[in-house]
Amino acid sequence: MADEIKSLDDLKSAVSGEAAVAETEAPREPQRDSLGRAYATGKRKDAVARVWIKPGSGKVTVNGKDINAYFARPVLQMILKQPFQVANVEGQFDVMATVAGGGLSGQAGAVKHGISKALQLYEPSLRGALKAAGFLTRDSRVVERKKYGKAKARRSFQFSKR
Questions:
Q1: Are 60 and 99 within 8 A, CB to CB?
Q2: DSSP string across 128-142
């Protein structure tokens, strides 16, 4: 009789979905290569960034150049530093990124997305803070295509009555 009650409880928890969550939810493992680096791809608009992070002094290199040389505008440098500030790991990781496509603003967003994903892969405990800040979500907004019969994507040619 006790076995039946226990199995009924198991059945109730299975129906409510509690048992399935407990079985599938496992702690995330850090994903690092043989050199101790974490790799991730970040995207924004038309820009794609390949990002490697490893423990270090906080040096950021983009396409072989220092962050100050590649992203000259302070706003773009600030965008790149946001994931480290949110995760409270400023100056603890070296970043090496290669980025292609798009303009500087899109490239900065792509590198930020890549850094966030790589941080989460290197140290899974940082995932909550990065996800809450919205840094792990790819910003899907891209430029709308031009349509025929239109001056731009939506702009019509000037109307002429005569």
A1: no
A2: HHHHHHT-SS-----
| Lateral strand order in the sheet of 65-66 | 38-44, 47-55, 93-100, 60-62, 65-66
Please check whether residue 41 is in contact with residue 48, taking contact to mean a CB–CB distance below 8 angstroms.
Answer: yes
The pTM (predicted TM-score) of the whole model is: 0.79
Structure tokens at 2: 């006790």
Give how far Cα 65 sits from Cα of 59, 74, 97, 153, 158, Å. Answer: 11, 16, 10, 36, 46
Pairing of strands 38-44, 60-62: unpaired
Strands (E), 23-91: 38-44, 47-55, 60-62, 65-66
Q: Tokens in use for 153?
A: 């994507």
Each residue of 33-43: pLDDT tens digit?
Answer: 889 899 999 99
Residue 156: burial class (beta carbons within 10 Å; 0-12, 13-18, 19+): exposed
H-only helix segments in the chain: 2-16, 18-24, 67-70, 74-87, 104-122, 127-133
